Amino acid sequence: MGKNILVIGGGGREHSISLGLKKSAKVNEIHIAPGNAGTLNVGKNHEIDILDNEQVINLVNEFSIDLVIIGPEAPLVNGLSDRLSLEKVLCFGPFSSGAKLEGSKQYAKEIMKKLNIPTANSTVITNSSDIEKILDEYGPNWVIKRDVLAGGKGVTVTSERHLAVNSILEGLNLDGFVLVEEFLEGEEASMLVIMDESGYVCLPASQDHKRLTDGDKGPNTGGMGAYAPAPIISKSVTNKILERIVQPMHMWLSSCEDKYRGCLYVGLMIDKSGDPSVVEYNVRFGDPETQVTIPLISSDLYDLFSYTAEGRIKDLDVTFYEKHALTVVLASEGYPKKPVINRRISGLKDDSENIVVHHAGTKIDDNGNLVSNGGRVLSVTGISDSLSESARISYELINNITLEGSHFRKDIGFRTL
């Protein structure tokens, strides 16, 4: 008898995970909460409040769920894994204690310092009278981070002092304290590491494009596109990442009372010498990085999730396709500040072996039309034997999609192509 799976979330990441699970002969039913218009074609959507743990438990009981996979960070920080554990429900995603690595940037910095993991120097500001002194210390480029979950949009990187001051004052007003970091030179990349106390598996490294517009201009977003594998993460760089960053963190997490069973997203800065530093840890799959890494996994995806949730990933041989994937995000007018929603979408085509349209902010309206329902609407993913061909496939389709006022970056993969 196949297994019943519940995927928590409603973005492109969760659509990608659900599509991967659908290929497994071991899966019976896929339930997604809340899901989107794309996941309707994969399983059954459920409109519940995913931050209400009891609503999730009720869903688990009603549909005899065998495995819960938690996509977004907020339910993890909110203790959904802890609650599922009390019910003896198998869950992919760390307990709230492990999720604190993403929930508090200050806490993550303290752990990295304790483990001698390379990362940018930082200072916590709690008083506006310290602003000028700290800015003098860290300039002429500043990185200001709010110590809260902000969906990838809680970071300001600027060389303009007045913007840095405004960002710090805003953070102090909202949260009471702000993290100011040294600006790291180099190229960003990320690695998704599936881990439990028995071991870990690194997925192909990827590069995200966080800025809104071409040439890495404009404000930070949740991510406007990505590609994998990322050539900057060579074998020698990978070895440094494992030795200096992944292994120390894995050893520490494995020594904790609450075992970490899930995905650890390692945001990296690679300097010109090929030395990596940690920009951030996230405690879940990245979005849109998931959309370019899941399609490259040739192993049964149900096994990857279930073995990890059971704490025995060391027993699984995970294999990958020797292919390249590139995804381009189509965003609503007004994103990331105030997205315009409920606009009709047309021009999509059916998925095939080399193209997948991952839905995010989409829904079916009362008239049965596909409409926008969020900031990031779709991520169009091309998969082929070369990165340039994957880019061509993605852009050929996204150029034919119609959504009034929408925009997308035209240079995804520019660092490599």
Short structural description:
With 417 residues, the chain is of the alpha+beta class.
Architecture overview:
The chain has helices at residues 12-22, 53-62, 73-77, 80-86, 96-103, 105-114, 131-138, 161-175, 235-255, 289-293, 301-309, 387-398; strands spanning 3-9, 27-34, 44-45, 67-70, 90-92, 122-125, 142-146, 155-158, 178-181, 187-196, 199-202, 207-208, 211-213, 217-220, 225-228, 262-270, 276-282, 324-331, 355-359, 362-364, 370-372, 376-384. With 417 residues, the chain is α+β, with helices and mostly antiparallel strands. The protein has four domains: 3-95, Rossmann fold (3-Layer(aba) Sandwich); 121-181, 2-Layer Sandwich (Dna Ligase, domain 1); 185-315, D-amino Acid Aminotransferase, Chain A, domain 1, CATH 3.30.470; 324-398, Glycinamide Ribonucleotide Synthetase, Chain A, domain 4 (Alpha-Beta Complex), CATH 3.90.600.10. The strands form six sheets. It has a five-stranded parallel beta sheet, sandwiched between helices. Helix 5 crosses helix 6. It is globular and about 60 Å long. The chain starts with a strand and ends in a 19-residue tail after the last helix.
Task: Write out key terms for the chains shown.
417 residues, alpha+beta, Rossmann fold, Dna Ligase, domain 1, D-amino Acid Aminotransferase, Chain A, domain 1, 4 domains, five-stranded parallel beta sheet, five-stranded antiparallel beta sheet, 27% strand, globular
